[in-house]
Every structure is written in C-alpha cells, then in structure tokens.
Design brief:
The protein has 210 residues and is mostly helical. It has a single domain, classed as Four Helix Bundle (Hemerythrin (Met), subunit A) (Up-down Bundle). The chain contains 8 helices and no strands. α3 packs parallel to α6 and α6 runs antiparallel to α7. The longest helix is centred in the last third of the chain and has 32 residues.
C-alpha cells in the first residue's frame, strides 16, 4: 500500500510539473527541480515495497504503469512546446505499448518483467533488460534527459544569451537521442524473446497428436 501511494504521488506530481512550466523563470526552475525528483522517486517506490514487504507481481505492474504515465506525459509535453520533434514521443510510446502488451501476456503465464521470474531467458537479454546496472543507467539517462529539458525551458525564460541557448540545444539533442536509443535497446530483447506471443504460439500451444 505504501509503495502504491508513492506511485500515485508521482503520477499527480507530473501533472503539477506540466502546469508549472511556461509560467515564468522561477516556476520553470521549480518545475525542473520537481522533474528531477519525480524521476528519482521511481527508485523510492521499489525501496518502500521491499522495506515493508509489499512486493508482488501486481505491485510491479502498477509500478511500471506509473513509470509509463510519468514518462509519456513528459515526452509528450516537451514535444508540444517544441523542444524536439513529435516523432520522439511517437517512437517511445509505440515501443512502450508493444513491450507492455508482451509483458502482460507473459504475466498470464506467471512471468514478470524483472526479478527471479523474469520473462527474459537469455543472459544477454537479462543483462540489457532486467539487470540492476541496465535499469539504473536507464533511470539515470531519463533523469538527465528530462531535467535538462526542463533546464532548457528555464534558460529560455531567463536572460541567457542566444549563443548559450544554441550551445545547450546541441547538447540537448545528444541527450534526447541517446535516451531514446537506450529505450529502444532495452525494448528489443523483450520483443525478440516475446515474439512467440505475437505469433500466437505461446498461450495456445499445438495439441499433441494421438
């Protein structure tokens, strides 16, 4: 229950963040700080769940759902205000839909996204998708990406010179494209090892001949 409350707080907070942006320098700065916090809270709900013995398959699914809402709201918002092309959220959201549907099919067989019952079988797939290293690096890349985008909006509302804005823009695109590439990389093993669900030969295996 406590972990679920943390997840719900993250979902509410991301809409507060969007409401604060584009309302002047100080509110932009506050929204940027809150963006960093809401991404960092992704680790908090997992810690709380383990600390109070609330870990469960359903809790893990709700955690992922919270992540998706937070991240997709931010991806869409920053595209809407012109920080990058609309293709960025289109690619990320499409990837998330495919991955999450495969994971829901796997969950019907008792397999989870992460942990001991992960749907990933090959060691290379576990390393890319389910390992603490990969998950930590991905969380860090998202935190950097969204915080930097918030900082860009804050900088544009300040008296920073246009030359500096242009320099920061080039860094922004490297961070955004790098984060999207990492997102696709982590999704690829799920699609590859879950391709049987897409082909319809996992949940309905062929009957043995008599």
């Amino acid at each position: 229950m406590k972990a679920a409350i943390v997840t719900l707080c993250r979902i509410v907070l991301v809409f507060v963040i969007v409401a604060l942006f584009q309302r002047g320098y100080y509110l932009n700065a506050l929204a940027t700080v809150l963006t960093c916090i809401v991404i960092a809270m992704d680790a908090l709900d997992g810690y709380v769940a383990r600390r109070y013995g609330e870990t469960s398959d359903q809790g893990a699914v709700f955690d992922i759902l919270g992540d998706r809402i937070v991240e997709n709201v931010l991806w869409i918002y920053f595209a809407c205000v012109g920080e990058y092309s609309f293709w960025i959220p289109l690619i990320v959201i499409s990837r998330d839909i495919i991955v999450d549907n495969l994971r829901s099919m796997a969950l019907a067989e008792g397999k989870t996204a992460f942990g001991e019952k992960t749907m990933q079988k090959a060691e290379w797939a576990k390393l890319i998708v389910a390992s603490r290293i990969s998950r930590g690096l991905y969380a860090a890349s998202k935190a950097l990406c969204f915080t930097f985008l918030g900082a860009m909006i804050t900088a544009k509302s300040s008296e920073l010179s246009l030359s500096w804005i242009g320099y920061l823009d080039s860094i922004k695109y490297m961070i955004v494209y790098g984060t999207v590439a990492f997102c696709l990389l982590r999704g690829a093993p799920v699609v590859w090892e879950g391709r049987g669900y897409l082909l319809g030969n996992r949940l309905n295996p062929p009957q043995a001949s008599s």
